[in-house]
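Hi P.,

Sorry for the delay on this. The queue was packed all week, but I finally got your sequence through. Input first:
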Amino acid sequence: GPTLFSGQIAATLFPSEIRPLLASLANVGLALFMFIVGCELEHATVAERKLVPVGVALGSTVLPFLMGSGLGLYLYSSHDGNGQHRLGFVLFFAAAMSVTAFPVLARILSDRGMNRTSTGTVALASAALSDVLAWSLLAVAVTVSGGGLEQWRTLLLPPFVAVMFMVVRPLLAQLSAAQGRRGKPLSDLLVPAVVGLLLASWATEWMGVHFIFGAFLFGAIMPRDGSEGVRRQVTGRLEPVTTLVLLPVFFIVAGFKVDLSDLGATAWGQLGLIMLVAITGKMLGGYLGARSQGVPNREAGVLATLMNTRGLTELVILSVGLQLGFLDDQLYSLMVVMAVVTTMMTGPLLAVLYPRARVDQDAAELAAAASPS
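Then the structure:
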């Protein structure tokens, strides 16, 4: 973006006439990414039904939301140039501070081998529940803002969600079962899945709630019972092109608006407050939530560290905020820095709190306990 050399590098590599095309590709990638997140979400919530993930999710969502609300009220006066509704701005900002990047966290757990431990399972379930809460709060913020659309359309959202779960989901399950009976590959459902997620994206956009919610919802209703292969084969076809081609375009488009070249003392002070609230809210909330369920100190610290991971999910929300006018360019840039720093913190902190040797030991103990005697 414009941070280095007044944006000359970006202007040379990506001239202004091709940027609308890049933005369109980025939106397609975003829709596919949110669909994949929705497909994977239930794995974690089903994997662990105890109260520990509930406590961690509530703690790491409620506390940063409350602290973010206070900071949002403070920042509103200096970042309300777009004339946004005060309540909508505060709700959006608080929701953005409450997010945990479920897909990024899943990759971190896999890379470090923590997905084989009980701590990793709890962390994944907590992140899934936390993201459900944060996305719900974000939908409320977008709805309150109105976005200039006729408000009656938003009233269609609850019946739309009900139809998706009670009508579309059973139809998808029947379709996948019919494919299995005819001996056809489940990957043949790729076209209906893509058409469905795009239609769901269009529907939520038309209702005044961003298209990412429709894509996420369609992924969440993909059939689970007895048809795991459907999601695995469909997402297996979509994930490579999404992560290797389309999401990098999204990162490029997101970077066009990040300008750190002309930040004054006030902006740096606001960045400090954002970092303080983001890290304290997430880590303290996650730690207290885990301790409230009797989790030992070290494991509670590991869970709190993992819940502070924001990554791509945060960038998605910030891009939505920029498009809808919740964030101006400067506040967007500050929030992007927060998202990058809080994600980069995770690896070094885990190396101290949960070294690889301890991960391997816990994984071996868990595997031994689960194996038949």
